[in-house]
Specification:
Strand order of the largest sheet: 1-2
Number of helices: 6
Distance between the termini: 43 Å
Radius of gyration: 19 Å
Structural class: mainly alpha
Helix content: over 70%
Oligomer: single chain
Largest sheet: 2 strands, antiparallel
Shape: flat
Strand content: 5-15%
Number of domains: 2
Length: 181
């Protein structure tokens, strides 16, 4: 992966900090950062904690994720498409969740549970779709226990992909059917 793309993921993770710094005075003193199953916030953070600490935590999580991928793929010429997708999960979630929490702080009518179910559903479908595109050599390198042969790898990979896609679809259905209020 190019160094510029890695730096871009860090910048995107820090985007809520930059935007929050610009609008600091307009943000409420307490911003919800965790929600219960009943769609009500059960943990709040101060303005400064929300703006500075959470994006830094997301950058640290991204560093951990990237270092794990780079460590496991030292010898790989090109990472599988699935891992390319994984590089962008933390930065995108960082921005989406920050926006959602600030909007909820101002307008309590947004349905956080539904948004989270939609995000998880889409993520599972994407991972399920891209996991079928991994070849046997990468499967031997990244999966434990190591697949015995290519046929065994294909079979397990296909089953895993279908299960992830079905779970993703279930999350999308749950997001629209079950009321979260």
């Amino acid at each position: 992966m190019k160094k510029s793309r890695v730096i871009l993921t860090f910048v995107i993770c820090l985007l809520p900090m930059i935007i929050g710094g610009l609008f600091y005075q307009y943000l409420p003193n307490k911003i919800p950062v965790h929600f219960g199953i009943d769609n009500n916030p059960n943990l709040y953070a101060s303005r400064s904690t929300f703006i500075f600490l959470i994006p830094i935590a997301m950058v640290l999580l991204q560093i951990f994720l990237l270092s794990t991928f780079f460590y496991t793929s030292k010898k790989a010429q090109k990472l599988p498409k699935l891992f390319e997708l994984m590089f962008w999960i933390i930065p995108i979630l960082s921005v989406l969740m920050s926006i959602m929490m600030v909007v909820y702080a101002y307008d309590k009518s947004i349905n956080v549970g539904r948004i989270v179910c939609l995000c998880v559903g889409i993520l599972l479908i994407l991972i399920g779709n891209y996991s079928t595109k991994m070849d046997y050599e990468n499967g031997k390198r990244y999966f434990r226990p190591t697949p015995k042969n290519e046929q065994d790898f294909r079979k397990k990979n296909k089953i895993t992909s279908y299960v992830l896609i079905v779970l993703g679809l279930l999350f999308l259905i749950i997001a629209w059917i079950i009321p979260f209020r």
